[in-house]
Structures are given as structure tokens and as C-alpha cells.
Design goal:
With 142 residues, the protein is of the alpha+beta class. 20% of the residues lie in helices and 20% in strands. The chain has helices at residues 2-10, 50-56, 116-127, and strands spanning 26-27, 40-46, 63-65, 69-75, 89-91, 95-96, 102-105. It has a 5-stranded antiparallel beta sheet, covered by helices on one side. The longest helix is centred in the last third of the chain and has 12 residues, at 116-127.
Length: 142
């Protein structure tokens, strides 16, 4: 798995005109065989943590990378009630601030998602911060 990701990251890749950044942003495109019925957001972590995260997560969905960040595809709304660490960039709609990110990992299953809670916990660990949850009450206090 990691060897495949590394070879894709280092490999040559020609971008299509539709993949060129628009004002420094790129819409990540999933492989056509993937079903994204829950919508897609992306979690960007510094590239230096990429291999460590991938090797320790129980399941990894689609992962894109450029020189600065690795982008993990998560279901839309995975930022609700989670306080992602400062080093993380959360991109709704998988519209990311990146330059020519490439797909470096595609899962064997038909779903493109990395489960957000294990990713959140691992990101907090590699960032050296304690996980915090947004404090919202489902039932208003009297």
C-alpha cells in the first residue's frame, strides 16, 4: 500500500486542463468507479505526516497529494463537532488550495472515504494536540 502510494507520488503525471488550479484551488476528482453518495470533503495534512497516517489508519479511502499536503477524502460534514488541529485544512466539497494534487491511493472498495473519526484522532496524535470536540448540546439547557 505505501509503496504504491510512493510510486504514484513520485511518478510523472500530466494534468488535464480541467485539473489546473483556479485561483490556487483545485476540485479533487474521484475515480469514476467510486460511489460518493455521502458527498465529499477533504482533510489536508502536512505532507510530512502522510505516510505515518496512511500506515496507521485501519482503512484508507482516496488520498491525493501535492508537495505540501496529503488530502484525505471524507464524507461531507465531517467537520461537524470536530475541532481539527491548526495544521489541518478542511475543504468542503473537496475544493482544495493545492497545485496539481495527484491521486496516490485508491481503496479496493467502491467507497472513496477514509473514516473521519480515526483520521481525526490520528491527526491529533501526529500534531501533538489533544483531541477536542466542539461543545454543542443536543438538548438546550433549561
Amino acid at each position: 500500500m505505501l509503496r504504491n502510494a510512493l510510486s504514484r507520488l513520485r511518478g510523472t503525471h500530466r494534468t488535464r486542463p480541467s485539473e489546473e488550479p483556479r485561483g490556487g484551488r483545485v476540485q479533487l476528482s474521484l475515480p469514476p468507479s467510486m460511489s460518493a453518495s455521502l458527498g465529499c470533503d477533504a482533510v489536508g495534512v502536512p505532507a510530512r505526516h502522510g505516510f505515518r497516517l496512511m500506515s496507521h489508519l485501519p482503512r484508507t479511502g482516496c488520498v491525493f497529494a501535492d508537495a505540501d499536503r496529503w488530502w484525505w477524502i471524507v464524507p461531507a460534514g465531517s467537520d461537524l463537532d470536530l475541532d481539527w488541529p491548526e495544521q489541518v485544512v478542511y475543504a468542503r466539497g473537496a475544493d482544495v488550495p493545492a497545485v496539481r494534487p495527484r491521486l496516490i491511493h485508491s481503496p479496493d472498495s467502491l467507497t472513496p472515504y477514509t473514516p473521519p473519526i480515526p483520521l481525526f484522532l490520528m491527526v491529533c496524535q501526529v500534531a501533538g494536540v489533544a483531541p477536542t470536540w466542539a461543545r454543542r448540546s443536543a438538548v438546550p439547557a433549561p
